[in-house]
Write a structure and sequence with these properties.
Length: 787
């Protein structure tokens, strides 16, 4: 549970001062805390080390309501809660917690009414321990009750979940009441994750389990940093999460069942390491690996609310979204799902499709609760079947002939590259939404055809004249393009124009899986000055003209000094070509692996430029662009050796399998992120992985895989990791005097690269974070684990 810096400031405003919170070894009887300064002896009770505090904190959404809580006391600018007993009933000012004279711990509202009491026998004293556990103890120091035995949503090192114990996630990021997910240590020895209904608490079927059945097993958070399921005889049955490479003496650890249903293992350096501010909680491990795929419930809405679908944000938190034409029931409580922005169709009118259209959304599925199925059926008929059915609110097509109809509301929605289906959502025509490009039109009424309906010949003549007119108009438009000069806007070229500009595609610059690049010259004079690089893409299906043009135009709207600028395109018949500005120094691969080592400062600027270009694609474009094939061959150099990323957007443009191998993996061997092999959700982190590999190649001027080298050096990422762990970075830069003179920056860039090539996407930084680390704005800590 985390509060923002603003709410941490609110704590200070209401006098939660450091001076008023002194360490206590033992809390004596009759001690108390209140939510105001009036009459308060203390505002929080600290552990002896000062690492943990017990007291009141205000809600982030309402500073006049308070939770009794335990939190990490030494984290600057943030308050991360560990435990609270009144999460469902925040208290107003003048509330208090008292260790009564007869040894009872009592939480009371301003009227003195008791809100919570752990019900422990009479205690002699209480203590806030350095483990983060708050205890009530007898005179012989035996524990009568402790917070570790009654957890909320978080567990800490040394804590154990015994049989029958559970933790429950909070409801949302800033709502600390009981949420929609629980983790339970069952009596039969199994560790199980459940979704629960709000507010009733009804328990749906499990969405993750350790599948270990040994009675009296326990979940133990070891001081080594591993959270293990332990049998009664002490053997490890399974590991939930692990961060054993990060010492608990140097890092705070916590395991939290987050509000999105994922159990995450976080660490935080005990010393501030970020320039000008605090460090952040770093995600080390989590379960399940992909909750969007794991969690399907019936009944129930799934990982997200009804009519919404599951995806992930840049921090790998679940990000639920509404389909086109729908909006949140409550934007502050997205788990409540989405509502249509129109009145659903009725069967009363007798014309079910009147006033409605279908919106096509690729890679979206609502996998259960169908009310009808058809096979065989193509996409167009699947779409039309729903449009013509007054009961149907959406239809799903799997691409191989199966079509399903769905009534309102939809459940268990999920969207991602692992989804091979297409959804058609019925929406109102009044929403001004683009209809699907493959919507089947049953009739086409030309002006005047009512009068001529009886004459097939006359209708044919009118249609022919119309087509001739349109063809002449197109020729006229193409003639105008012939006379145009390329400016800042995208131009639509004819195939003949580009054939002439490239001298019949005679001067090949390079070729790859997507197509072949030719050198081109602008204008009929052909002065010999190179102006263009024309990429001739592999053949396309003829029915995606409009979609191709729209995607190209969206790519053409990107402008960044580290991207190759798209100047125009050709979309004629089955020919698809892209026209780029010409990069005179060729590819980074040719420059880097030519046998002559480029200057060190130039390599540094190339790395920084590529990072900034990727950050722009991932985080600064109006629509995120994931490259999917970052490698030196796809980075070009202009006349000043500035790096320019090329071929971005092609993964989306090519649509089907044209950038994939027969295994369904996009990218190039040696640069492909591990998640491609696991059929996991694909995010911008695949580019981060490829970038990390390429940084190592640029640093040490060698390819990632060198089969002719000795075995320990053959794979660059492994060799670099081994040398780094052994403290032999100098061996990597041997013979590179310029780099050897700047080993501080070499090590920084190397550490960034090792973070980028972590196997788990959640451990990799974003490109924004990468850029900050490379530029030295952020100190890189902790040390990256071995990939």
């Amino acid at each position: 549970m985390e509060f923002t810096p603003f709410f941490f400031l609110l704590i200070t405003i209401i006098a939660f001062t450091v001076a008023a919170a002194q360490p206590h070894s033992n809390i004596t009887l009759s001690s108390f805390l209140t939510t105001t300064t009036a009459g308060a002896r203390n505002l929080s009770w600290l552990s002896p080390s000062g690492d943990f505090a017990f007291g009141f904190v205000p809600l982030p959404t309402n500073a006049s309501l308070f939770l009794l809580a335990i939190w990490f006391a030494n984290l600057p600018n943030t308050t991360t809660l560990i435990w609270t007993p009144n999460r469902d009933k925040p208290l107003p000012p003048n509330s208090s917690v008292i260790l009564t004279s007869d040894g009872q711990l009592s939480l009371r509202d301003p009227t003195g009414t008791e809100i919570w009491n752990p019900g422990a026998p009479k205690a002699s004293y209480a203590a806030m321990l350095d483990t983060g556990d708050f205890v009530l103890a007898a005179s012989d120091s035996s524990i009568l009750w402790n917070s570790f035995s009654d957890p909320t949503d978080t567990i800490l090192p040394t804590q154990t979940l015994s049989p029958g114990t559970e933790i429950v996630a909070k409801l949302s990021n800033d709502d600390f009441s009981n949420g929609r997910f629980k983790l339970r240590m069952q009596n039969n020895g199994n560790l199980v994750f459940y979704q629960i209904a709000v507010p009733t608490g009804y328990q749906y079927s499990s969405y993750w389990a350790a599948n270990s059945l040994m009675a009296n097993s326990r979940l133990i958070f070891n001081v080594s940093g591993s959270i293990d399921l332990i049998s009664p005889n002490g053997s490890v049955l399974s590991t939930l999460t692990s961060a054993t490479m990060k010492s608990t003496s140097d890092y705070y650890h916590r395991g939290t069942l987050d509000y999105d249903g994922v159990f995450r293992h976080y660490i935080y350096p005990k010393q501030t390491t970020v320039a000008g501010g605090a460090a952040e909680w770093l995600l080390m491990d989590f379960k399940p690996a992909d909750i969007c795929q794991n969690l399907i419930t019936s009944p129930g809405s799934g990982a997200c609310g009804y009519n919404s679908y599951c995806g992930y944000d840049t921090k790998q938190m679940v990000a639920c979204q509404c389909p086109v034409g729908y909006s949140w029931v409550d934007p502050n409580r997205t788990y409540m799902g989405c509502k249509p922005n129109f009145t659903m169709p009725s069967c009363i009118s007798g014309v079910p499709s009147e006033g409605f259209q279908m919106v096509r959304i690729e890679k979206l599925d609502f996998p259960i609760e169908d009310y009808d199925q058809f096979n065989p059926m193509d996409e167009a008929d699947c779409e039309q079947q729903c449009l013509d059915d007054c009961f149907c609110a959406a239809s799903i097509h799997d691409g191989i002939g199966n079509c399903w109809k769905k009534k309102f509301p939809f459940s268990n929605g999920r969207k991602g590259n692992y989804v091979s289906r297409v959804a058609f959502i019925k929406v109102s025509n009044n929403d001004n939404l683009p209809s699907s490009h493959c919507t089947k039109k049953r009739t086409w009424i030309l002006p005047g055809s009512i009068v001529l309906a009886g004459s097939v010949v006359l209708n044919f003549i009118i249609l022919s004249i119309t087509l001739i007119y349109l063809r002449k108009s197109k020729r006229k438009q193409n003639h105008q393009l012939n006379d145009s000069v390329l400016g800042p806007n995208l131009k639509a070229f004819t195939y003949k124009e580009l054939e002439e500009a490239t001298k019949g595609f005679s001067e090949e610059l390079g070729r790859g899986a997507c197509g072949t690049v030719y050198r081109g010259y602008l204008g009929p004079e052909l002065t010999g000055t190179p102006d263009l690089a024309v990429k001739k893409l592999r053949d396309f299906q003829p029915d995606i003209d409009k979609e191709f043009a729209n995607e190209v135009k969206s790519i053409g709207q990107t402008h960044h000094k580290n991207l190759v600028r798209l100047l125009g395109y050709c979309n004629q018949d089955m020919k698809r070509l892209l026209v780029y500005e010409y990069m005179s120094k060729g590819s980074l691969a040719s420059y880097l692996f030519s046998g002559i080592r480029p200057p060190w400062e130039q390599r540094v600027e190339i790395i920084l430029g590529i990072a900034r270009g990727l950050r722009y694609l991932h985080e600064e474009c109006s629509t995120q662009i994931i490259h999917c094939d970052i490698k030196p061959q796809n980075v070009l150099l202009d006349e000043n050796f500035n790096p320019r990323i090329s071929d971005f957007g092609l993964a989306k443009l090519l649509k089907t399998d044209q950038t994939r191998t027969n295994t369904g993996i996009r990218g190039t061997k040696g640069y492909v992120a591990p998640e491609w092999f696991r059929n996991s959700a694909i995010s911008a982190k695949v580019d981060v992985y490829s970038f990390g590999v390429m940084v190592l190649e640029i640093l040490f001027c060698r390819r990632n895989v060198e089969k002719e080298m000795e075995e320990e050096k053959a794979l660059l990422t492994f060799w670099v990791s081994d040398c780094y762990n052994d403290g032999r970075i100098d061996a990597l830069a041997e013979g590179d005097e310029e780099a050897m003179a700047d080993m501080g920056r070499v090590e920084r860039f190397l550490m960034v690269a090792l973070w980028c090539v972590q196997e788990e996407p959640a451990l990799r930084p974003t490109m924004g974070q990468v850029t900050q680390m490379l530029e030295g704005a952020v100190v890189i800590d902790p040390v990256p684990p071995s990939p």
